[in-house]
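User: Let's play a game. I give you a shape written as tokens, and you guess the letters that built it. Ready? Here's round one.
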């Protein structure tokens, strides 16, 4: 059907004296722009929280810096490439673990309650026991995280965080020249937090180059190496402050430097 026939058969005729309301057209264009902006933000939000993905209850969220799939975090092929994003997806979908394949990761992050973050995977494992953190080195290096410059703290445990776990990582490159905690900063009143099978090395802070435990009811650090860190004032390896409570099990704390109490 021609355009002329279509207009004659199905569309109302427009009188020659009709004048287009430009203000209405402008208003409609504005509404369209706002709608497109809303849909874009919504899509980005859904993607960031893994709402597009179909997770099985209890499964891990997968992270692999070299992944090239759909980046949903559902499996190794479609793994996410960012630990902070994986934590957000895990929290948003009530998933208990994040599995991180070997490689170099540069983004700092904060641990979340009831989520364990495990490193040391090759990128094909189906059970946790198959990982090997010593052979599959998983590195959090924040020396270039801020536009090519080091960030102040690599890993944080915030005020209300409980039952969080970091396991199987090498943490390095933090430089907190004016505050506490380079490799790890703990300011949590929560319980059940664990740092296991990790190495903190090459971190710097005003206090607590390797880690600073300021407020913590029960932090367990087990099978960790805290070596070669530095603090300007005190606690090259570990700084304890306030009401911090720290239990070390099978750890090596050596060759750290500080103005005092290295």
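Assistant: Ready! My guess for every position:
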């Amino acid at each position: 059907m021609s355009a002329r026939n279509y207009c004659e058969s199905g569309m109302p005729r427009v009188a020659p004296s009709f004048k287009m309301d430009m203000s209405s057209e402008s208003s409609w264009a504005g509404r369209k722009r706002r709608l497109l902006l809303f849909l874009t933000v919504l899509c980005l939000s859904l993607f960031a929280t893994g709402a597009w993905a179909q997770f099985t209850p209890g499964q891990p969220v997968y992270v692999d810096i070299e992944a090239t799939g759909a980046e949903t975090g559902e499996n190794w092929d479609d793994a996410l490439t960012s630990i902070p994003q994986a934590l957000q997806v895990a929290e948003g979908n009530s998933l208990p673990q994040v599995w991180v394949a070997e490689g170099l990761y540069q983004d700092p992050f904060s641990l979340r309650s009831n989520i364990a973050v495990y490193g040391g995977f090759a990128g094909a494992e189906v059970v946790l026991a198959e990982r090997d953190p010593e052979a599959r080195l998983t590195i959090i290096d924040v020396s270039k995280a801020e536009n090519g410059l080091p960030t102040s703290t690599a890993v944080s445990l915030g005020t209300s965080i409980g039952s969080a776990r970091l396991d199987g990582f090498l943490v390095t490159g933090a430089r907190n020249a004016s505050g506490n905690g380079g490799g790890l900063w703990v300011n949590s009143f929560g319980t059940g937090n664990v740092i296991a099978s990790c190495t903190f090395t090459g971190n710097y802070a005003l206090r607590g180059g390797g880690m600073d435990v300021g407020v913590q009811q029960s932090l367990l650090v087990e099978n960790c190496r805290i070596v070669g860190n530095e603090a300007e004032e005190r606690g090259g390896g570990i700084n304890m402050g306030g009401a911090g409570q720290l239990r070390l099990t099978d750890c090596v704390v050596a060759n750290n430097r500080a103005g005092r109490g290295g």
